[in-house]
Amino acid sequence: MTDPAAEGARAAARHLAAQHGPALVTDVEAALHARDTSRRPDQYLDPISLGSLIVSVAALAWTVYTDLKKKTDTPSADVITRTVRAELRRTRTVTVQDDEIIAVTVQETLTILDAQPHPPR
């Protein structure tokens, strides 16, 4: 099984590369490679790096999604996005540019999650 947070981060980087430059894809790969597997998904990497922000948002979106999935079959993308923004605001200033990056990254991560096979209940 693939890592939905990593795949969501990669998809978001591809989506945002037109606006932020093709190096973004490499930056995200570097941030994914540097990610410590012992770190909890809700602990953020260097907030200065756009690649690290995308990886952090994707990991947090995955965590929020799986938590909400325990309560409802179809967690709302809007609720997940708002929750991710709120969590990020606890540790950093979220800019207007960050809002777009958060929205795209959450959506791309949810697309990956929705495409994965789900075990029967």
Give a quick summary of the entry.
With about 120 residues, the chain is mostly helical.
Task: Kindly describe this structure.
This protein has one domain. Helix 1 packs across helix 3. The protein starts with a helix and ends in a 6-residue tail after the last helix. The chain has 121 residues and is mainly alpha-helical. The protein has helices at 4-20, 23-34, 50-69, 77-89, 96-115. It is built from 5 helices and no strands.
Q: What descriptive keywords fit this protein?
A:
121 residues; mainly alpha; 5 helices
What is the overall shape?
globular
* Main sheet record: none
Total helix count?
5
- Strand segment tally: 0
Q: Helical percent range?
A: 55-70%
Write the layout of secondary structure elements.
Layout: H1 4-20, H2 23-34, H3 50-69, H4 77-89, H5 96-115
Helix pairs in contact: 1-2, 1-3, 1-5, 2-3, 3-4, 3-5, 4-5
